[in-house]
Design a protein that fits this description.
The chain contains seven helices and six strands, in the order βββααβββααααα. With about 150 residues, the protein is α+β, with helices and mostly antiparallel strands. It folds into two domains: about 80 residues, NE0471 N-terminal domain-like (2-Layer Sandwich), CATH 3.30.2020; about 55 residues, 434 Repressor (Amino-terminal Domain). The protein has a three-stranded antiparallel beta sheet with strand order 1-2-3. A three-stranded antiparallel beta sheet has the order 4-5-6. The longest helix is centred in the last third of the chain and has 15 residues.
């Protein structure tokens, strides 16, 4: 399996107001605000308790942030996607969802976007940041597809 340092956490620290400070093995650092997610998800509601949230720590291999005695954990890849979205970027999960919702294979998705299969795989797997024009192409293609005008 490929090295996924961009999804391996090296540090996780609970901050005030349901925020986490995260550091990843590829050198990326993020602050992520989980307050809305915690409020809207019944399984995360226990994290509204400040002492439980403050117990945030890395899982054994840095693939998640655990709270308490492991009763709640949040995957490192989901946290990174969330942090990228909060900072105004385009998270890799958008590509996964776009492909799934439009029943596109990697080959077909790359073809409709006019990029190489390899580059799309980098974007989809979170290995490279998704340029805004690529995401806009996804949205544009989907819109044309719904109106029967996409190639």
């Amino acid at each position: 399996m490929k090295n996924r340092d961009h999804f391996r956490l090296t540090k996780a620290k609970a901050l005030k107001n349901s925020c986490l400070k995260l550091s990843y093995a590829d050198g990326a650092d993020f602050n992520v605000d989980l307050s809305d997610w915690i409020k809207s998800s019944s399984c995360l509601k226990p994290l509204q308790e400040p002492s439980l949230f403050a117990s945030a720590k890395l899982s054994e291999f840095g693939r998640a942030v655990e709270f308490g005695k492991g009763e709640i954990d949040l995957a490192a890849d989901n946290l990174r996607n969330f942090a990228i979205e909060q900072s105004g970027g385009i998270g890799h999960e958008r590509i996964w969802n776009w492909m799934h919702e439009n029943n596109l294979t990697l080959d077909r998705a790359a073809e409709v976007l006019g990029i190489s299969r390899r580059m799309l795989a980098y974007y989809r797997n979170g290995e490279k940041p998704i340029p805004r024009h690529i995401w806009l192409a996804c949205v544009g293609w989907e819109t044309l597809q719904k109106h029967g005008k996409a190639a």
